[in-house]
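Work Package 4 report. The design task specified in the project plan requires that, given a folded chain encoded as structure tokens, an amino acid be chosen for each position. We show below one input record used in the internal validation round.
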């Protein structure tokens, strides 16, 4: 679970070990104390069984029950969402995407950065940093999301034109237009949208007279789902990935480039 990336770079004051473990999602303070006193936690190559030992958290690597972790103030990760999982802690008909994550991360209250339907696959970000979640879901930010759409019927030029020009959806005040709609094959389309409305892609495609058979999110902003990350797998975001997902600092080259 260790990584040496952005999640571990922030400076935090020294903490007693019990509180540090609690902050990382290993249970209540009492449970963390018991874990430590029971010899389940290793720091360096030694069991650390003093829950009141003080230490600087940043850069700290520790092993709990055989699994290595690195202290991180916040969790930022990507998951390759498989079909048949709901983006909810309280799923109604399918398993929860949170069941695909290690328990300490779930305990830390990570949230989905925008939801995917249960049958949609692909790139899903999760974080326990509320500001980051907000930045990447706020309609004002207009983060582009690219989907590979498989349609039930052959795509017609008029349907692509309608997606680019904008289609009117029920309960929306304005037409919604794709940033890009590129046909890949007779029934596959790369569709980029900048909003995150309920069932948006399915409703947009339906509004053109076609129907979505399968939906896969390939990219969010500059971040593309890595081919090496198979369905159901997750990994930490790296420094550069996280920086690219944050809003540009005012006056920076990225801000000026729009
Ligand atoms: N649009 C949809 O219709 N469903 C998704 O899961 C994501 C975007």
């Amino acid at each position: 679970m260790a990584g040496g990336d952005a999640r571990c770079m922030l400076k935090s004051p020294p903490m007693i070990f019990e509180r540090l473990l609690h902050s990382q999602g290993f249970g209540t303070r009492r449970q963390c104390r018991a874990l430590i006193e029971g010899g389940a936690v290793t720091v360096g190559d030694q069991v650390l069984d003093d829950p009141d030992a003080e230490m600087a958290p940043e850069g700290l690597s520790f092993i709990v029950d055989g699994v290595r972790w690195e202290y991180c103030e916040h969790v930022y990760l990507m998951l390759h969402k498989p079909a048949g999982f709901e983006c909810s802690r309280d799923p109604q008909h399918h398993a929860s995407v949170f069941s695909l994550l290690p328990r300490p991360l779930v305990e830390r209250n990570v949230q989905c950065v925008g939801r995917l339907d249960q049958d949609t696959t692909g790139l899903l970000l999760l974080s326990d940093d509320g500001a980051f979640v907000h930045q990447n879901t706020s309609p004002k930010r207009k983060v582009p999301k690219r989907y590979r759409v498989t349609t039930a019927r052959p795509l017609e030029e008029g349907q692509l034109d309608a997606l680019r020009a904008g289609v009117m959806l029920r309960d929306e005040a304005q037409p919604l237009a794709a940033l890009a709609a590129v046909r890949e094959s007779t029934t596959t389309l790369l569709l980029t949208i900048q909003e995150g409305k309920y069932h948006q892609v399915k409703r947009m495609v339906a509004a053109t007279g076609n129907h979505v058979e399968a939906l896969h999110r390939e990219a969010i902003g500059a971040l593309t789902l890595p081919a090496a990350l198979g369905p159901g797998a997750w990994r930490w975001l790296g420094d550069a990935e996280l920086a690219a997902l944050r809003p540009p600092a005012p006056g920076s080259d990225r801000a000026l480039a729009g």
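The chain has a mean pLDDT of 92. Validation will be extended to a larger panel in the next phase.
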